[in-house]
Amino acid sequence: MRIKEKFLPGVVTFDANGNDTGKRYSYSDRRPGAEIDLIILHSIAEYMIVNDTPQEWFAYLANPKHNASYHYVVLPYDDEPVLNIVPVHRRAWHAGISEFRGRRNLNHTSIGMAFVLPVTGYGEFMEAMNKPESFTDEAYKKMAFACRVCMEMYPDITADNITEHRIVSHSGIRDDPKHDPGDGFDMYRLLNEIEGLQAAAI
Ligand SMILES: [Zn+2]
Hints:
Blueprint: E1 3-5, E2 27-29, E3 38-50, E4 53-56, H1 57-62, E5 72-74, E6 82-84, E7 90-92, E8 99-100, E9 103-104, E10 110-120, H2 122-128, H3 137-153, E11 162-166, E12 179-180, H4 187-199
Parallel strand pairs: 1-6, 3-10, 3-11, 5-10
Antiparallel strand pairs: 2-7, 3-4, 5-6, 8-9, 11-12
The structure holds zinc ion.
């Protein structure tokens, strides 16, 4: 099991005094002093349809118009490593308007991880999220490994602090039905895999 760095483009911008503003195309700075103690899980489609053309997920996220990114991405294929696409000390843009145990603005304090589902377009993606077979054995193993590595880096991330992504609507209603990785994803299975890794030497 391994992790490979393949960072999204990050473009540095400077303020009038020549100081780095921390703004990047695909990610930005965390709030000063933000303690990382949360992992938020997501799903994305392998290909999105952009202007009637399928566009692979990496190119989609690299486009500054889309304002979306994750720290780690897990592909469903056996021979692919976990990809680290945003440096973990930076703020990836994945949680949006979000809430966890009364805390908001979770991009500052969380690590975003995404399963890539092998589908094209939004309609297929919405269906795939509900199917257990969209989440392969290999994907569970890789996601567990990535979580475990982050738990070693940031000991405040406990198994309790690994959560699915639930969007909090602007009206503040917490039970918005939109969520990912999706109903096909089994959180208990992932936590078991992580626990298995805890027992073994990494
Ligand atoms: Zn999400």
